[in-house]
Automatic annotation (TrEMBL):
Residues 88-164 form the Lipoyl-binding domain. PANTHER family: OXALOACETATE DECARBOXYLASE ALPHA CHAIN (PTHR45266). The lineage of its organism: Bacteria, Pseudomonadati, Pseudomonadota, Alphaproteobacteria, Rhodobacterales. One of its GO terms (cellular component) is acetyl-CoA carboxylase complex. This is Biotin carboxyl carrier protein of acetyl-CoA carboxylase. Pathway: Lipid metabolism; fatty acid biosynthesis. Residues 63-82 have a biased composition (Low complexity). Keywords: Biotin, Fatty acid biosynthesis, Fatty acid metabolism, Ligase, Lipid biosynthesis, Lipid metabolism. NCBIfam families: BCCP. This protein is a component of the acetyl coenzyme A carboxylase complex; first, biotin carboxylase catalyzes the carboxylation of the carrier protein and then the transcarboxylase transfers the carboxyl group to form malonyl-CoA. SUPFAM superfamilies: Single hybrid motif. One of its GO terms (biological process) is fatty acid biosynthetic process. Residues 63-94 are annotated as: Disordered. It comes from Halocynthiibacter halioticoli. GO terms for molecular function: acetyl-CoA carboxylase activity.
Length: 164
């Protein structure tokens, strides 16, 4: 690998970190090296594609979903027969990582079942490659179900909670 390529890889990694740290969906940069030599980079993450990818991990998500949903047993039995990824209020994971319900160990959870949330409120954190990704509420409503537990591994597109 040449020096230029090594610096390009580092540059692209830095752009990806900027994307996550600033909660951006897309970043595009053109780097000029000379008259006929340039690097054009576009780093993006799209949450719209999530519903397509959610079909594969749904069977895996069904087993862990039963344990955290048990404390809220009243609304869960009716909704448990439905696939949570098909629910219009499902909040999917934008990345593969580890779910955390609070900002730090021992702190209060961001949300609990029954809490009212506004669009953009942090619901939880998903850590991916030592980057803490705050998961914002896509809409205002009430948290009906939390489908993952603190410290659970989550897949891309896996439903994390239901907001109605």
């Amino acid at each position: 690998m040449t020096k230029k390529h090594e610096s390009d890889v580092a540059f692209i990694k830095a752009l990806a970190e900027l994307l996550n740290e600033n909660d951006l969906t897309e970043l595009q940069v053109k780097r000029e090296y000379g008259a006929d030599d340039s690097l054009n980079v576009r780093v993006s993450r799209k949450n719209e594609v999530v519903s397509v990818a959610a079909a594969a991990p749904a069977p895996v998500a069904a087993a862990p979903a039963a344990a955290p949903a048990s404390p809220a047993a009243t609304p869960a039995p009716a909704a448990a027969s439905d696939d949570p990824s098909d629910h219009p209020g499902a909040v999917p994971s934008p990345v593969v990582g580890t779910a955390y319900m609070a900002a730090e160990p021992g702190a209060a959870a961001f949300v609990s079942v029954g809490d009212k949330v506004s669009e953009g409120d942090t619901l939880m954190i998903v850590e991916a490659m030592k980057t803490m990704n705050h998961i914002p509420s896509p809409s205002s409503g009430t948290v009906k179900r939390i489908l993952v537990a603190d410290g659970d591994a989550v897949e891309f597109g896996q439903p994390l909670m239901i907001i109605e």
